[in-house]
Amino acid sequence: MKLIFLGPPASGKGTYAQRVGPKLGIIQISTGDLLREALKNETEAGLEAKKYMESGDLVPDEIVIRLLKERITREDCANGFILDGFPRTVEQADALGEVTEIDKVVNLVVPESVVLFRLGGRRSCGQCQKVFNINTMPPKEEGKCDDCGGELIQRKDDTDEIIKDRLRVYAEKTSPLIGYYKEKGMVVDVECNQADIPPELMVAQILEKLGVN
Ligand code: AMP
């Protein structure tokens, strides 16, 4: 199964994709994680992407499309994947459509108040990227990842100023994809009106809407 998780920043794309993936035997691919990894390794793509990521803007399509295409041809994608944070523009969606067929798009419908509350508390593991939230989904031990013990960090682009830009970019460039995929009859809407709804409940809802539970 090949899925796209669509939604504004902090709508829970990563959190739910990390949990839905294993239930379907498919992996989660986050272009944000791929780019942060590229930046850490100081690859050409990573260094080029840096200024866009730090200002909350989108990295140019050409860079992200190249990274994504390379990633989905690897062996661990044979059973399928969940794309988390890709596509983010119509150009990216067109490019994806040229190389593979997607089964369904899970559209996370989340009010802005929930997004803002979650973004401020979001922390992620510096080693395995697992996502926590100090307000709604705290780790068992403060500052430490439950899974690998790695240090939890706040993303540089999760600050108030940059968050506004990221929400504007989502509204302008990414939200048109909801209509793009609705026209193709591929979208399942999943609503989340509460900031602290347990991830397991959302995962159950997503699986139900996908018809696999
Ligand atoms: P994320 O972890 O998905 O919130 O992504 C973090 C940042 O990486 C975004 O604010 C963008 O700067 C960049 N990014 C991630 N995915 C994409 C994409 N598909 N297209 C363009 N930029 C992206």
How are the strands of the largest sheet arranged?
2-3-1-4-8
SSE order in H/E notation?
Answer: EHEHHHEHEHEEEHHEH
What are the low-pLDDT stretches, counting only 5+ consecutive residues below 50?
A: none
* Secondary-structure class: alpha/beta
Quick structural overview:
This protein has helices spanning 13-24, 31-40, 44-54, 61-72, 90-99, 112-121, 160-174, 176-183, 199-210; strands at residues 2-6, 27-30, 81-84, 104-109, 122-125, 131-133, 152-153, 187-191. The chain is α/β, with parallel strands linked by helices.
Structural notes for this entry:
This protein starts with a strand and ends with a helix. The protein is of the alpha/beta class and 213 residues long. It contains nine helices and eight strands. The protein has a five-stranded parallel beta sheet, with helices on both faces. A three-stranded antiparallel beta sheet has the order 6-5-7. The model has no long low-confidence stretch (mean pLDDT 95). Helix 2 packs across helix 3 (44-54) and helix 4 (61-72) runs parallel beside helix 5. Bound molecules: adenosine monophosphate (AMP).
Secondary structure elements and pairings:
Layout: E1 2-6, H1 13-24, E2 27-30, H2 31-40, H3 44-54, H4 61-72, E3 81-84, H5 90-99, E4 104-109, H6 112-121, E5 122-125, E6 131-133, E7 152-153, H7 160-174, H8 176-183, E8 187-191, H9 199-210
Parallel strand pairs: 1-3, 1-4, 2-3, 4-8
Antiparallel strand pairs: 5-6, 5-7
The structure holds adenosine monophosphate.
